[in-house]
Every structure is written in structure tokens, then in C-alpha cells.
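The instructor's notes for this session suggest beginning with a concrete chain rather than abstract definitions. Hand out the sequence below and ask the class to guess, before any prediction is shown, which regions might be ordered.
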Amino acid sequence: MLKNRLIACLLIRDGLIVQSFNFNKYLPIGRPKFPIEFVTQWDVDEIILLDMSAGKENRGPSVELLKMLSLSCTVPLTVGGGIRSVEMARDVIRSGADKISVNLAVLENKKFITGLAGQFGSQCVVVSMDCRKQKDGKYYVFSSSGQKNCSLEASDWAAEAEKLGAGEIFLNSIDRDGSRSGYDLDLISSVTSVVNIPVVACGGVGSYKVFSQGILHAGADAV
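After discussion, reveal the predicted structure:
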């Protein structure tokens, strides 16, 4: 049985670590090297590093930056952003990542999950899901920085991703992103109830008390 994990998620946008607010506004924090060094002192179990600019610039995560950051990172590192091929994923792993996070690429080509799992093992494949509640009360997956509704219910996509070979789900609530108003427990529960792989809950944390809610009340494996 895996222990529950505390994970720090760092977003890179235009070369800077930023704080996101509902996927619309971004507050610059600083150059990536210093937040990585700072966060590793928090006794987190893992770090997720997502390059938001990679997809728009038609590239993968910066290998040079990743090599530099991995020297300062003493915990497992998941890296995502613009990864569209097995070769690109291999470069990321060779540069210091323990796992890769994929989002848009697997929405456009679901079999890419299976290809990645076949090459690196399911434990290396994290499917990132950005979700938003709609007027019908259901949660849907969005792409393009939360702008495009993919017409996929969150629970359906999570279950399918697991069948295709995903080893973990990184679940982010667009509605709660940066709000500090607490997790969307209904969203988390809707996904954890249909998969057997670990689910990482993200979006809405404003207090350490929220962590236990995500785990105990919604079934998240990591927060």
C-alpha cells in the first residue's frame, strides 16, 4: 500500500515560476532554480514541474533547465509540458525526471498513453487533467489552458486513461485554482471512485487542513 504523499506543484511560464489563478492570471515568483531549492526543504515527498509555455512554443520541457534543476532536487520529480513523443519523453527522463506528465498530447492521441507505458512502465506515466464544473453539474476535462471544453467527463477520461496504461492521475480544478477556498471534493471523489491508480489532488489549497480533507473525504492518494 502506497503512503499518502505531499507534493509541491511548480508552474513555469515564460521562464519564470508563477502562481496561477483560475488559469487566467499569473503571478511571477522567480527563476526556477531558487523555488526548487526552497521547496525541497519543506519535506515534500515529490515535486511536479510543469512548463506551461512548452506546448504553445511547440517544444518539450527545456532539457538544459531540467538538468540544472535536478541537481538541486532531492525528491522524485515529475515533469510535463509539450511532451508529444516517446523520444521527447526519453530525453526528459534522461535529464533527471522520474515521471512524465502528459495532457493535451494524450487527449489528441489516446494511444500515446499506451506507447509511453510500454516504453517506460505505467509508473512513469502521469495523466494530467484540468477540469471544470459545467451547468449540468458534471465535471469536464478542458485543454488549451482551460479554454477548450473537450466534452469528456472527468470520471470517464480518468477511467479510460487507466485502462490505456496511465499509472497516476494529476487532477486539477480550474474553478479552485489559486482560490485558497479548499479542494473541490466532489470532483476528486468522482475520479477516485472509478480508478485504482493514485490520484493527486490539486487546486484550492489555502491551509494545511485542506490536505486531510482531500485524502480522508475524497480519497486522494496525494495532495
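Then share the key points. The chain is about 30% helix and 30% strand. The radius of gyration is 16 Å.
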